[in-house]
Amino acid sequence: MVEQLKKSVRDVPDFPKKGILFKDITTLCKEPSMFVRMVDMMAHRHIGKKIDLVVGIEARGFVVGSALAYKLGAGIVLVRKPGKLPHKTHQASYTLEYGKDTLEIHQDAIQPGQNVIIADDLLATGGTAGAVAKLVEQMGGNIIECSFIIELDELKGREKLSPHPVFSLMSF
Ligand code: AMP
Predict the structure, then answer these.
(1) Is 96 a pocket residue for ligand 1 (Cβ < 6 Å)?
(2) Potential cystine with 22: which of 1, 10, 12, 86 (Cβ 3.0-4.6 Å)?
């Protein structure tokens, strides 16, 4: 089943920079049966648990994050690129596989003690999700899991997210 999902991810060489093999999930998400299966498999372990919020990371993390939140009866929180969120924010800067960036979250997005899943399409070096995990922790959120569709094993992002539990549906 996972093999079928893996096959529907498209490899795009040299995007957005030379030397990066971009894992394109649009080919997976546009297939109704694949998309449903993907969300079901990511949500499965948490059904019946108390998950308050899913934190989705701009932009592909919104796709997987909001579907996961709906499935789990949780709220969805948006972590966005600078200047996009309208209210007061907390910020975190981080390094990613192809550059540097800053992310923002609304200051009132998470209440202390809320159970949170962090969601994105792909775990590479772990810089992005690590920065989001720090924000969630600073706000008093309880990180239940960092969830990804794809994990790039050799970049060891999982280690950077330690001690938080990491789930990925497929790895390359
Ligand atoms: P990192 O911070 O290194 O774990 O990078 C993860 C973030 O960058 C995620 O938001 C991904 O969408 C994006 N990303 C990094 N590398 C790739 C890749 N090879 N293919 C697709 N997206 C990537």
Answers:
(1) yes
(2) 12
DSSP 3-state of 105: strand
Residue 63 belongs to domain spanning: 47-171
Q: Any catalytic annotation for residue 154? A: no
57 lines ligand 1 (CB under 6 A): yes
Asked if residue 42 is part of any domain, the answer here is: no
25: in domain: no
Q: What phi, psi does 93 have (nearest 5°)?
A: -105, 150
- pTM for the model: 0.97
What pLDDT score does 97 carry?
60
pLDDT at 165: 98
Count of domains for the chain: 1
SS percent in the chain: helix, strand, coil, step 5? 35, 35, 30
Question: Does residue 115 surpass a pLDDT of 70?
Answer: yes
Secondary structure (DSSP) of 131-169: HHHHHHHHTT-EEEEEEEEEE-GGG-HHHHHTTS-EEEE
* Total residues found in the chain within this entry: 172
Q: Which residues pair with 33 in a beta bridge?
A: none
What are 2's two structure tokens? 């996972």
